[in-house]
Amino acid sequence: MTLSWQSTLTVSAHFLHGMLHFVRTHHGEKVAAQVLASAAIPQSLLHQPDARLTRQQYVALYRTVAATLDDEMLGLWSRPIRTGTLKYLMLSLLDAPTVLVALNRFVRFWNLLLDDYRLQISTKNNLVRLALVERAPGTQVTPLGHELMIKLIHGIASWLLGREINLHRVEFSFARPRHVEDYAFLYPGELCFDAGMTSIYFSYQDCAELFKREKHELWAFLKRAPEDWTFSAFHRASLVAKTREYLEPHIAQPVTIQDLAKVLHTSVRTLNRRFAEEGTHFQAVKDGLRRDIAVHRLTNSNVGVAALAFDLGFFDATGFCRAFKHWTGSSPSDYRKGSRQDE
To answer: Edge-to-edge strands of the sheet including 117-124?
Structure first.
């Protein structure tokens, strides 16, 4: 298995339902089915609450929905964000001397477009905060809209610097979601829910850095969108990411947390504390990687279930099938059948 841990990432079906919501409610199930077919996603995943989308499926679905709606924000805001908006936004940022100046331009740009919310930027205690402020009390919160806006801010700032900009904290104005495990990769930093408003915090030092990006680099970034601003191409500093990076080439072996501690030159106690700070534990990270590799290979190859079980370090296919059903709600054969029946 040569895929990197970043390539095998999967995300919750929450993103599938969220991206399709406007299409289904305003254009009907027939158009929604066409969108899924264009993105090579089986309709059966709509009926599996614990289904996972591969990174490739996520990107294909995003692009297909955006093209179908002529809305780069997928119908999630009060008015469409027409095709080409991201291009002109990014062009306005290229000649900014620092990330902070670019973020101020980002805020002014979006505030010309959004009717339901406005972006607010402020600096305090060596932190730069960008917040989504409702323009009228009681404005409906669409979690995916907030998730994507915060991810867009973080992704663009990271791309401008050429490295993943550290997140001091992210606050969301909605309750802790079922798919919170995905946040370890989307928002690698301290997370808070049920906040007064959705906000993202960077260190002032990072935002004060100079950067230089050329137009030819921008064209490549736009061509790959939304991949680069959703799934950062840079090294991730979280313990979850480091753990997955270590485990991926050793996933067939009985790797323990003690092995990880030796590689990272730290103690098991310290690792457990850091995992807890990131809202997880070693076995959950290992199982998440196994699940993601399994979903990716069931979707993209003809590998047998028994061989896949062996590759993932299970003693037999029965144990793997039991674990996979616990992770996704489906057996490996049913998952594969759903992925192939709509092709």
So the answer is: 117-124, 127-134, 198-203, 169-171, 190-192
| Domain residue limits, the chain | 77-230, 239-341
Alpha helices in 301-331 (DSSP H): 305-311, 317-328
Q: Which residue has the tokens 């996520």?
A: 58
With beta carbons less than 8 A apart as the criterion, state whether 186 and 73 touch. Answer: no
CA-based nearest residue to 61, from 84, 35, 85: 35
Token pair of 63 as six digits:
């692009």
Indicate the CATH number for domain 239-341: 1.10.10.60
Burial of 209 (0-12, 13-18, 19+ CB in 10 A): middle
At 29, which helix (H) or strand (E)?
helix 13-38
pLDDT tens for 280-327 read 899 999 999 999 999 989 888 888 999 999 999 999 999 999 999 888
Provide the residue type at 177 as one letter: P
Q: Which residues contact 301 (CB under 8 A, 6 or more apart)?
A: none
Cis peptide before 249 (omega within 30 of 0): no
Residues in the chain: 343
Contact status, residue 115 vs residue 61, Cβ threshold 8 Å: no
Distance separating the N- and C-terminal Cα atoms of the chain: 25
Rounded Cα distance, 130 and 119, in Å: 7
Q: What is the pLDDT of residues 190-223, one digit of tens each?
A: 899 999 999 999 999 999 999 999 999 999 999 9
pTM over 0.70: yes
